[in-house]
Amino acid sequence: MSLPQLVSILADAIGDSFSRGQSRTLFMGPIIIGYNYFPSEKLSLGIEANYANYINKDYTSDQVNSKNHFITLMPQFQYYWARLPQVEFYSGIKLGASFFHEKSTNEDVTHAFVPAFHVTPLGARIGRKKRFYIDSGTGFDGLLNIGYNIPIQ
Question: What is the reported pTM?
Fold first, then answer.
């Protein structure tokens, strides 16, 4: 779950508490694809794109109250601070922009570009050639990410 999705869920929960409404939330993502370039053994520079969505439905009627979509592009920097034979540990930061699209029940449509960021205090890549990764952080990528890296030679 990314930070924008978390903020949307909290805003809807607060709204429900004042209106005595009940809603349920569905979310997907973020789905992330990116490219990293390693100018040295300790540094990685790259770019990442991700997509996430969030849907709020009225609990009793199953009517969609709003649909939010986030398409995000962020350049990234990672610093590898420990390397073991099969595991690398890193920290990183990403800064960019996100295109936000919201459609509500009354057919109002909102578009906006908003600043996007992600801070990763701790991440690990496991393996040498093809590597799995796991990292935790806060921002537009989600609280916990697990994925797979494929090196391009």
Answer: 0.78
* Cα–Cα distance, 70 to 66 (Å, whole number): 13
Number of domains in the chain: 1
Q: How many residues does the chain have?
A: 153
Neighbours of 39 (CB within 10 A): 8
Residue 10 contacts by C-beta under 8 Å, 6 or more apart in sequence?
none
Domain that holds residue 99: 3-149
Q: What is the pLDDT of residues 84-110, one digit of tens each?
A: 989 999 999 999 999 988 877 767 778
pLDDT digits (tens, 9 = 90+) for 25-63: 677 778 999 999 999 989 999 999 999 988 777 656 556
